[in-house]
Design a protein that fits this description.
Length: 142
């Protein structure tokens, strides 16, 4: 039985007018760093935890440029590997600095790319595409 909704957070890291996406070995698509929130976890605490878990990045509060209470969401495909029906993500805009360490952890990403926000549609984001488009709009990047 699938759970209805996953509360989550995503980070839009920006540097030199580009955003960071990564190739996910789990589904072959590209995605922003993101992940589920723990029960009662605020999304700003969640993004710090997720960036540490996924990229080995210790996020300093001063790097957070903006965050949004409005969520972006998508429905998961009806496949056994997804245990939720839908995911709703808070978006956090983060200024990347070259001194920050980005080192993919576990099996989250097998490639990281800095792209122009208007090029996101060229990468397979699958069922996440509309939510990602809205996230870039919230961040005033598209």
């Amino acid at each position: 039985m699938k759970h209805e909704l996953r509360r989550a957070v995503m980070g839009v890291l920006v540097h030199n007018d580009k955003v960071l996406i990564g190739s996910s070995p789990r589904d072959g698509g590209y995605k922003f760093p993101q992940g589920g929130l723990e029960p009662n976890e605020h999304y700003l605490d969640g993004i710090k935890r997720e960036l540490k878990e996924e990229l080995g990045l210790e996020l300093d509060q001063s790097a957070i440029l903006d965050h949004f209470d409005e969520t972006v969401g998508y429905d998961y495909p009806d496949e056994d590997r997804y245990i939720f029906k839908r995911q709703e993500l808070h978006v956090v805009l983060i200024q990347y600095h070259p001194t920050m360490k980005l080192e993919p952890q576990d099996d989250e990403f097998d490639e990281l790319l800095w792209i122009n926000p208007n090029e996101l549609h060229k990468f397979p984001t699958y069922f996440r595409a509309q939510a990602y488009q809205r996230a870039l709009e919230l961040c005033k990047l598209y």
